[in-house]
Every structure is written in structure tokens, then in C-alpha cells.
Amino acid sequence: MDVGTRNYLVVTGGYWAFTVTDGAIRMLVVLYFHLLGYSPLEVALLFLFYEFFGIVTNLAGGWLGARIGLNLTMHIGMGLQVIALALLTVPDAWLSVPYVMAAQALSGIAKDLNKMSAKASVKALAGGGGESRLFTWVAALTGSKNALKGAGFFAGAALLQGLGFRGALAVLAGSLLCVLIVTALLLPSGVGRMKTKPKFTQVFSNKPAINWLAAARFFLFGARDVWFVVGLPVYLYAVLGWSFMQVGAFLALWVIGSGIVQAAAPRIFGRGRSPGGAAARGWAGVLAALPAGIALALGQGWDPAPVVISGLILFGIVFAVNSAVHSYLILAYSEGDRVALSVGFYYMANAGGRLAGTVLSGWAYQTHGLVGCLWLSSAFVLAAAALSIKLPPVRAEARAGAVRISDDG
Questions:
Q1: Residues 6+ apart with CB under 8 A from 392
Q2: Terminus of the chain with fewer CB atoms < 10 Å: N or C?
Q3: In terms of pTM, does the model score above 0.85?
Q4: Domains, in order of start, for the chain
């Protein structure tokens, strides 16, 4: 095993451990604060800062990673998550909405620091393996993350059942602290650090391909969350009559399944091949038809249970391939020493799309039901497809980057 592969596996292992805690803490907060008597709106507000600070963190985190190294920002993220978990172990009387929102804000900062660092590290660690190796590695990392986040939902519920709220938090915090120590010892220092200290203004990309891709990413993830975050769970519970456990289990399995598809995305494109801008456009076009089709079927009075379930499964498969293509393209379009800045900027757009989708999901469901959420989702995907028209092939973009580097001396 070469050094690059070993370091990639260490980064992946650290990312896996963090992801399980991220999924678990979300489930713990939702279930426990529901038991404490918090209203659904109050529970939703607990995650508002979690999403908002993801935007800020991705923007600043890429700049920080380029200055101090991605391995250090990854470990800062792990440390902040340990602190966030510890903050929630206080007595129930302290767990006011503002207090928990602050703890969740810290968890959101930790999550996006860790995610940005792990994904940007892949570009540096892939070395001379070529675009096919880069696509395979980033698809495996991202897909496994999504699968493990779903597993984290189960872990959080099981720990809450077996150890109680504070016992569960203690186990998660202790486990992640051990992983932090191990990965800090195994990883080399300075991964992804630029030779010159970048100014903060450099976080805004001057490469058109990255800007177009970030804009498309905003709408792609907004399209998922505009019906997945609020509309779908409420619909499954209130209209289809599912229990809380059935809703949680089904959504967890959906996340795990989409992660498996995402990890397998390189096989869809064929061995030794990697996607370009045309793939982003084509798969977005297919995805846009799915929520529209579900909305039409529901509007025609079809049996909602099979329509929604089968539609959600198909949406998850096609969305996972779209996401894998995007996650690869941001690394392929990024120049080597600017990868942290580019990935941070890109995931800022990702976080913005999630925040917009979360807010719009509640509004659309309240005013137009699940059908309204679905039509809005389809419109968002069409916007992502339109913005992807400007995305170039990877090889052409790489040649252009080489010319620019040469021209700059």
C-alpha cells in the first residue's frame, strides 16, 4: 500500500467516525427534545444555526485550510464536535432553545470544517493516480459518508434507548476524541497548505467553471431539502399514518441507500472513465422529471403510498449520481494548491442551498402541501441543469488551468 492510499484511508476513517456522531446527535436532539415537550417549530429552530453556520464555515474554512493545512482544520472540527456534545450534557433546566441552538451552531461549524477538510484532502492525496482514481476516491468517501450518516440515525436512537441522553453523548464524545488522537498521530502535517498565505478575498473563486458549479450545487441540494426536510416526514406521518419510528427508519435507509449508490457511481460511468460538465447536465435533466412525475401522479389521485415511496427511491438513486458527479468536478476543476479555497467556496453554496431548501420546505408544505414541495423541487433541479450548461469537460478545464499557470510564470 502506497503512502497516499494509507493517508486516504486514515482521512476516510476519521470522516466516518465524525459522520456517525453527526447523524447520531441529530437524532438524539430531535427525539429527546420532543420528549421534553418542545413543539415541532422549536425543534426545527434548534437546527437553524447548524445550517446557517455551515455557510460561514465553508467560506472561512477553505481559507483557513489553505493557510494552516487541511489535516489541522479537520482535527479542529473533531475537537469542536467533542465540545458541542459535552455542552448538551448539562441538566435539563439549562437546555433552553438559545442554549441548544448555540451548541448546534458549534456542531454545524465542526461538521463543515471536517467535511471540507476531508474532501479537499482527497485531491492532494490522490497524487498521480489520474482523474479516474480521483473520481473513485471522492465517490467512495462521499458515498460512504452518506451511508454512515444514516447509520448514525440508528446509533443515536439505540444509544438513547440504552444509555439515556447524557450517556449517549458521553459515548459519542469519548469515541470521537480517541479517533482525533489516532488520526492526528498518523496523518502528515501541512496537507493542502498553500506555499504563500492566501488573503481572505481569495476564497471567492475567479474560475468560471467553479462559480457555475457552485451555483448549480446550491439548487441541486435545495431541490432535495425542499421536500425532504419538512414536507416528506410530515406527509408520511400525517397523511400516510406512519409512526415516528417508521418515518425515521425509512429516511435513514434512504440516506444509506443513496450513499451506496454514490460510492458506486464510478462503475456507472465505466472503468477508467470520469464525468465532465455534460454528465452534470444530463443527470440533472433526468432528476428534474422525477419530483414533477410524483406531483402529477398525486394530482391525478393515484394511491399516494406506492407513488411517494417508489418516487423517493428513484429520486435518491439519480440524486446520488448527480451529487457524486458534482463532488468529483469541484476537485477536478480545482488547481492543486487552491483546492481548499475552491472546496470551501463550493460547499458554502451547498450549505446555502440546504438552508434555503429547509426554510422553503416548511413554507411550501404549509401553503401547498407535498405537491407544492415537489414542483418547487423540480424547478430547482431545472435551475441546476441550466447553470450546468457552462460547465466544461474536465480535460479542457485542466488544459486551461495549465495555460493560466504557465502564463503566470
A1: 209, 276, 277, 400
A2: C
A3: no
A4: 3-404 (1.20.1250.20)
